[in-house]
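Case 253 in the screening queue. Each case pairs one protein sequence with one candidate compound; here the compound is magnesium ion. For every case the pipeline is the same: read the inputs, emit a complex structure as tokens, and attach any notable structural observations.

Predict complex for case 253.
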Amino acid sequence: MQVSNRQKSNMIGVLGVKGGVGSSTFALNLASALALNEKVNLVDGNLQQPDLATLLNVSPRFNLQDLSPRLDGLTEEMLASMSLPEKDLGNLTLITPPLILDQALTIAPYALVNLLAGLRQLNHTTVIDLPKIMDQTLLDLLDSLSHLFLMIEATVPAIAAAARWLKVINDLGFAGEDLTIVLNRAGGKNKEIEGQILQMVKDFRLLKLANDFKEVENAAVVGLPLVLTAPRCAYSRSLKNIVTSISLEYSRS
Ligand SMILES: Nc1ncnc2c1ncn2[C@@H]1O[C@H](COP(=O)(O)OP(=O)(O)OP(=O)(O)O)[C@@H](O)[C@H]1O
Ligand SMILES: [Mg+2]
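Case 253 output:
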């Protein structure tokens, strides 16, 4: 697998090395932190099991099914109809699959690739919570990113999964500055496994996120991102640091 050099649009992907490692929580909070300063599109790429609308406790009037026939002519107005002003997140547009499975099944997975192409034309920052199924859709989605956050946690299965994904990501031509490894629930009890992970990813940029169980759960109950409900907790502070470093990178490119 070989692809072109990363494109310098603000197209950010979040990929969990396996299920449950915290990728939706991270994608939501990353997009929300970025949206404090700019317009951001948050895309839920999990067509059959979307979680982002649930984490925000919204059932959007318009969704990916409405956009699907019009992906090659996306407009600011269409995106504005998916923004979340009622959540004090007016800069954030949530593009979610329909929350009803029957409807979601009518959307071809490849629509996600066309969606990112359409969003690129509008030049806003986009964050996509990526599906974890390795197929042509995911390869093309990865190929259209400017930056990938690969989420890991300190468990034995996650180490094995991370090794598999790192091989693919390397083959796809992600260079150092295009990739950040996110160690979620860092600093836990499993020091030996965490040490093995740190050794495995020592050549990459690393972000550690604390285990903030109470704050993360509370944010989901309230239906808001953690960066708004608990801006000073450890998770939110780490996120804001990464947002600052991403913004610095964009201003250089
Ligand atoms: N840093 C953290 N501290 C505490 N709890 C967390 C943290 N990150 C995620 N969680 C919790 O872990 C669970 C899984 O998180 P999330 O849904 O974001 O993972 P995911 O990788 O998107 O899962 P899936 O594979 O189901 O899509 C959720 O209950 C979430 O609240
Ligand atoms: Mg998820």
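Case 253 observations:
- Residues 23-24, 46, 51, 129 surround magnesium ion (ligand 2) (CB under 6 Å).
- The domain at 11-252 is CATH 3.40.50.300 (Rossmann fold).
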